[in-house]
Amino acid sequence: MKTTEDVSFRDREVFSKAVQMQLDKVLASEFFSPSARHQLLLRTIVNESLAGRTEALKEIVLAKDILGRPDYDPRRHTLVRVEVNTIRRKLAEYYTKPNSEDHVRIDIPPGHYVAVFSSLPAKAEGHPWRKTWYAVAVFVVVLFAILASLFGGQHSRRTPPHVPVQITFDTGWTAQPATSRDGSVLVYSSDRGPRGNTDIWIQQLGKPPRQLTNDPAHDITPDISPDGTQIVFRSWRKEEGIWSISAGGGNAKLLAKGGYAPRFSPDGKWVAFAGAPTGDTGHIFTVPAAGGVPEQVDYGTGEADCPVWSPDGSEIVFVAHDINGRKYDLWTAKAKGVRDELSRPLGAEAELRAQNLPATNDCPQDWIGDRVLFVTRQRDISFLFQVALGSSGKLGPIFAVPSAIGALGARFVRGPKGQLSILFATERRQTNIWEYDLTSSAPLKQLTHDDSLRPGWNGTWPALSGDGNVLAFITERAGSPDICLKDLHTGAEQLLGASPSLRSPLFLDRNGSRILFVREQGSTVSVILRNVAEKADRLLTTACPVLHDWSRDGELLLCSDGTDLFQFRIGQSGKMPLLHLTREPVLARFSPDARWISFMSTTGQGETAAGFLAPLDGSNRTIQICQEVYVLSLHWAPDGNAIYYWSVRDGFRCLYMQPLHPETKVPQGPPIVILHRHGTQRYPWSGGTLAVGSGRLAMTLMDELANIWKLDLPR
């Protein structure tokens, strides 16, 4: 008699042979045959994935053993990420060409180095027009056991593979699913509407989806009442907070000002949420679903987030620090406990670390029976876990859900026959540099197609030559940081082999023939001037701890050390003090005539950023021209009579211009919006970046792409 294990092994053996045959076809194709490196890397990833040797598929192991980089450091180098991204693109191109002999699809999910395999449906004779994406794709994730071995636990190794099925097929961002108790109503957040911002959508079983909210602001993180009649969500409307709306539509109403992450209680009478209406630190609150006064439920904790109700509604699990900001863990609190009763840590963080599992940014997702579902993150990858939590409050074994690596916004759902499944969204982000033409109403123009660029304040900062014809940016497409120059007329690009610091911006001269950058070697910070045509570097100084700017005439460097701003004159020794400030300046910039500077500095407890102008007349005088809740950077117009900056004053990060008096630099009237970014795509996430050239601006913008999937769990 054949056992289940014998059959399972034999099935895997047959499928492994099919994958190997498909791999040979792929490697012999026009996409892979020219590159021995890509052939070797893809064959290694597929073979190690099939064999279950996931320890060989770590970034640093691939770099050293396959790509020959013994000095590889994932914190500084990106060669593996860049090469695997190239392989992903080649695989996608290969499968866009129709081939009736292809029976298996090979993919490497973004953010991972383990391959997954899908069976391709046979093409129906007489119907060559049918596209495979019209079929119901059965994703055969044979790596369930393989990935489980990465996380440990014999329970996962005995579990047969289960297949995630895609539920939504949007080209933008559709995520954060929630369902009614019987699973007949699905709600989620999506940017598929005409404005491009995120709204709440609802879909009943057997019916098409319907847009439920239609406000210009972002509406996110919906939850649906157990009976499917009410939806709560977080909104960034003028009165931001938790809002409620009927499943049938109508007007939404504010339920709790300033709240996040709302969740209905099991009886539908209460809503839990995270917020900070009584102080500077986040707590968990409950409010009647019909409206009322919020009540705090957690005590002895701070920065609390992600509340989830227990099945009987008596407790709430959440993530938080202890009151001293030290112990980070999952905690439980009584939903209607005695005031000041301390919350109880579950010890999940320690258990994750003991098992050598990812243990940062934990966030509970759902609680059904004795199972709690939660997400952790490691670098840019999210991991989904289940843990048993008994009535005594004791934490049971923690198991990974390998088929849902990369999952966000996960929820349990129980089918009509008792089948337990997980709904989740997978997210992918793409960052590139875009151009905004100041002289016309032309749409944004994409300037780069580079997978190694990073979004936001700590990401890729573009630079433009004074005439606006040359773009410079730091890329890691070749595996380590380098400077790329792009001629915006011809589109030609060149890498300089400059080894720049990722922590300092770049500066171009008037026509892009010279570029200024920082190079770090150990604790030494060197300011380098490169002549592009001659490929010659000139060391200007090692006495500029933080480089802020290079004057338009090419003569001065603007530097800071702590709270002191000073300048160097290139070719001369010594420095000239400019300003002594009470807080460290950030991104200081010379005006075009070098008679003024702009800079940003934090205010209060560091929760806001203020923008200042200061004359370089020895007065140490400053003029505040704006203030933002988040990060801020100021950029002079070429004539010095205006400042450009990103602002969230209308609820979205949009680009503004502040006119200035030509002599006094006093703001002239309110700032003028010149570019709205109210959608989720091409958005200046995490503060935004900016470069100003003659007639154009350059900025890094990010696309977020996501869809919802369903995964049936073992019975």
Describe the structure.
There is one protein chain. The N terminus is likely disordered. 39% of the residues are buried. α1 runs antiparallel to α2. This protein has seven helices and 49 strands. β37 and β38 form a beta hairpin. Helices cover 12% and strands 40% of the residues. It folds into three domains: 139 residues, no CATH class; 284 residues, TolB, C-terminal domain (Neuraminidase, 6 Propeller), CATH 2.120.10.30; 269 residues, 6 Propeller (Neuraminidase), CATH 2.120.10. The longest helix has 24 residues. The two termini are 24 Å apart. The chain has 715 residues and is mainly beta. It is globular. The strands form twelve sheets. Strands 4, 25, 26, 27, 48 and 49 form a six-stranded antiparallel sheet that branches.
Question: How are the secondary structure elements laid out?
Answer:
Layout: H1 4-27, H2 36-51, H3 59-65, H4 79-96, E1 104-107, E2 116-119, E3 139-140, H5 144-151, H6 154-158, E4 164-166, E5 174-179, E6 185-190, E7 199-204, E8 210-211, E9 219-224, E10 230-235, E11 241-246, E12 253-257, E13 260-264, E14 270-275, E15 283-288, E16 295-296, E17 301-309, E18 315-322, E19 328-334, E20 344-345, H7 348-354, E21 363-368, E22 371-378, E23 381-389, E24 395-400, E25 407-414, E26 420-437, E27 445-446, E28 463-464, E29 470-475, E30 482-487, E31 493-495, E32 507-508, E33 514-521, E34 524-531, E35 536-541, E36 546-550, E37 556-561, E38 564-569, E39 576-580, E40 586-590, E41 596-603, E42 608-615, E43 623-628, E44 635-636, E45 642-647, E46 654-659, E47 672-675, E48 691-693, E49 696-712
Antiparallel strand pairs: 1-2, 2-3, 4-49, 5-6, 6-7, 7-8, 9-10, 10-11, 11-12, 13-14, 14-15, 15-16, 17-18, 18-19, 19-20, 21-22, 22-23, 23-24, 25-26, 26-27, 26-49, 28-29, 29-30, 30-31, 32-33, 33-34, 34-35, 36-37, 37-38, 38-39, 40-41, 41-42, 42-43, 44-45, 45-46, 46-47, 48-49
Helix pairs in contact: 1-2
